[in-house]
Amino acid sequence: MSEVECLIVDIAQARLDASAALEFVSDPGFGGITMFVGRVRDLNHGRSVLGVSYDMFDPLALKVFERACAEAAALVGPRIRTYVAHAKGRLAVGDLAVVVAAGTPHRDEAFRACRTLIEVVKHQAPIWKQEHYVDGDSVWSEGCSLCAAPDPGHTHSHEH
Amino acid sequence: MSEVECLIVDIAQARLDASAALEFVSDPGFGGITMFVGRVRDLNHGRSVLGVSYDMFDPLALKVFERACAEAAALVGPRIRTYVAHAKGRLAVGDLAVVVAAGTPHRDEAFRACRTLIEVVKHQAPIWKQEHYVDGDSVWSEGCSLCAAPDPGHTHSHEH
Amino acid sequence: MKISISLYGAFRECDPRGSVELDVPEPAKVSDLRAAFEAHGLAHWPAFKPGLLAASVFASESTLLRENEALPANGRVAVLPPVSGG
Amino acid sequence: MKISISLYGAFRECDPRGSVELDVPEPAKVSDLRAAFEAHGLAHWPAFKPGLLAASVFASESTLLRENEALPANGRVAVLPPVSGG
Predict the structure, then answer these.
(1) A127-133 and A43-44 as β-strands: parallel, antiparallel, unpaired?
(2) 3-state secondary structure of D9
């Protein structure tokens, strides 16, 4: 019953579409939809950002997105629709980098499921962010080390 | 710095607009947006629902929406944009009843702020739901009793 | 003083006009209005439920009113049953 | 056996082609490849950071690989530095 859509969107060809996410997770039996949208910020660690390049190991990234959806369903039960889309390529400030959404019968489930989606994507998906600064410098963000046998219930709570 | 938009939308004249919510809470300095959308379900407490009428005491409802936004800002700090819109009138299954959204620098703040918005709206706003069933019956939902001196930090965690 | 009470939610079933006007002796507190409203409801409205009133609060357009508060000078209040928005 | 290693994130700085091919003696485990990759990096890439490799894992297209696992039969792996998506 759990329906899932996972996408990688090459920014050279298309944009992430928050409306499509809402549409996908909607169902006549669902009263609650929670969506998270991540956008490129103009400032990070005090440095002025021009844009961000996202590099991605596509086949494994899609598998991790699907696992994120499965974890969300494991958390709240099978009556859920989930959506995960991540951009790759060079994004400008304000561009959408990631859109995740969960539709469920009630709102508490939708919030917990949506949070699970984004935490798994952030901490487990093989995606790398290179920030381009106004001063001409570019830096690959320090990230979250993957481990070879991840505990499926493990999601970090720190921000990065 | 906290920017707020609060709306009551008469369903006879317009629809709730999730894209407008995303747009409003966006800011070049914000990396995270969390949105919650509440829709009319086809089934409630096992009864088949045709539609829902929302009744609202408009002036006080808007004040409560504004207070919800202020509580969200108190929770995560002044770098936040918040949006609260609720429909009134007769809605069909699938129609959007409520849209709330919060934009903040990071995602944890956005999730906590968005959750605060919807909990305050659900438990403190003077809004009443009458469900119309397929069998012709109509019932005003049992709800959450308001109290004359609400603790601003108080939000119930139960679902209704 | 004349008090106009707007009816919301299930109280709309009591009077299709959506409001009722009651006269309460001055100085009147919210609790006085509550008693007058209950007496009126029991006397005139078959659909009136005292239990719903007990779970309801009175409010002005800007705030909820405490039981021992004076009624607003403009004579306009609303009676708010338990809420169920969202 | 010949192993083609795709480079992602900061490892792309090491070789603009985005991959490198290494020969490792069979039977080869992931840990053997890690040692060969480190030796290659130290010998050929000025931008190579052993600390980054220590925080990285190897993966096939479908799963992360444990250190004591055999290398995939198709000879294709990726080296994944700490991730920073979203």
Answers:
(1) unpaired
(2) helix
Q: What string of pLDDT tens digits covers the 160 residues of chain B?
A: 579 999 999 999 999 999 999 999 999 999 999 999 999 999 988 999 999 999 999 999 999 999 999 999 999 999 999 999 999 999 999 999 999 999 999 999 999 999 999 999 999 999 999 999 999 999 999 999 997 544 444 444 445 5
Phi/psi region, residue B45 (left: phi>0; alpha: psi -120 to 50; beta: rest), is left
The number of folded domains in chain A is 1
Which A residues 95-154 touch D at CB under 8 Å? 97-98, 118, 121-130, 140-150
Min Cα distance A35 → chain B (Å) is 5
Q: Please name the residue that has the structure tokens 């509580």.
A: B71
C20 alpha carbon, distance to own chain's centre:
9
Contacts of C62 in chain B (CB under 8 A): 59-60, 63
Q: Where are the domains of chain C?
A: 2-80
Structure tokens given for B58: 């408009």
- Cβ neighbour number for residue B46 with a 10 Å cutoff: 5
Cβ of B34 within 8 Å of Cβ of A114? The answer is: yes
| ipTM of the complex in this document | 0.93
Nearest to A38 among B28, B31, B42 (CB): B31
The DSSP output letter for B4 is: E
* B21 part of a folded domain: yes
User: Under CATH, to which class is C2-80 assigned?
Assistant: alpha beta
Give the structural domain span for A55: 3-140
Question: Is residue B154 domain-resident?
Answer: no
Q: Indicate yes or no: CB of C78 within 8 angstroms of CB of B143.
A: no
Q: Can you give the CATH number for the domain in which B43 is found? A: 3.90.1170.40
Report field, pTM of the whole predicted structure over 0.90: yes
Q: Give the integer Cα–Cα distance in Å for B153 and B20.
A: 28
Number of residues written out for chain C? 86
- Residues in chain B closer than 8 A to A36 (CB atoms): 32-35, 107, 110-111
